[in-house]
Amino acid sequence: MVNNGCLCCTVRGDLVKMLLDLVKKKKDKFDHIVIETTGLAKPAPVIETFCSDELVSRYVKLDGVVTLVDSKHAMKHLNEVKPRFVVNEAVEQVAYADRIIMNKIDLVTEGDLEKLTDKIKHINSIAQIKRAKFGVVDMDFVLGVGGYDLDRIDSAVKVDDSHGGNHHHDTHGRHHKDHHHDHLHDSAVSSVSIVSEGTLDLDEVDDWLERLMEEKGVDLYRMKGVLSVNGSDQRYVFQGVHSTLDGCPGKTWEPDEKRTNKLVFIGRNLDETALRKGFKGCLI
């Protein structure tokens, strides 16, 4: 336990100390460390502890974020209007998740579950969702997630057109009219997906993402992508949290495989048109 059981930014130092103590005393005696936060905890400070603290990241890696959703009451909390500049904690916890467990499904109707699923997918289009009663799910669903493993980004970035989340399909840089979405300025948290064939200039991509983090890092909760870049037969995979970005070459494209770029952005006040424009500016 850390001070008051709280893992918000005021006690991140305690979290670092606790993790390093565990590594020092019991390094070879555990496979996973499970951190359970309160229902009002902000996920970002905990995630950033693993990404930004050099000592922690040397010995411990973040596997993933699992969010337990109360299907009976979640919609009320997700739709709660907060004062200006105050972020809805329930929405943030869904936005940062790699896995989402929709619990208490026996207390609601199938129609309510479908509406809640659509709401969750609008906020976070890449998290895997599992329904449960009494919180019972397979252990493999919550451990070994690999949510921050670049080698698994390709399988993680799946764009599901059947649910919410603003998606955009583009072939060779030309916008298909049948997939057109109106320009959106969403003050709520949402996700934007871009799927496009074509080859990207990696230097231009790096410049674009760096500018994006500098200008919008506070509002960019998560981003992941699989890219087809010039001069390489390998995918380029990347992921980011706020102003932290990590990327590297991935597995090789097959000779007859369609080289499709897939990017997902999750955040607040996302300007879908600006994101599309920035992406198109990197196409060769």
TrEMBL record:
Record has DNA damage as a keyword: no
Q: Which stretches of sequence are listed as region Disordered?
A: 159-183
> What SMART domains does this protein's entry cite?
CobW_C
Keyword terms, alphabetized: Chaperone, Hydrolase, Nucleotide-binding
Q: Does the keyword Nucleotide-binding apply?
A: yes
Q: State the reactions this protein catalyses.
A: GTP + H2O = GDP + phosphate + H(+)
Where does this protein have compositionally biased stretches of type Basic residues?
169-180
All residue ranges annotated as the CobW C-terminal domain in the record: 189-283
- Gene Ontology CC: one annotated term: cytoplasm
Q: Which residue windows does the record flag with biased composition (Basic and acidic residues)?
A: 159-168
Q: Which family does it belong to?
A: Belongs to the SIMIBI class G3E GTPase family. ZNG1 subfamily.
| Name of the molecule in the record | CobW C-terminal domain-containing protein
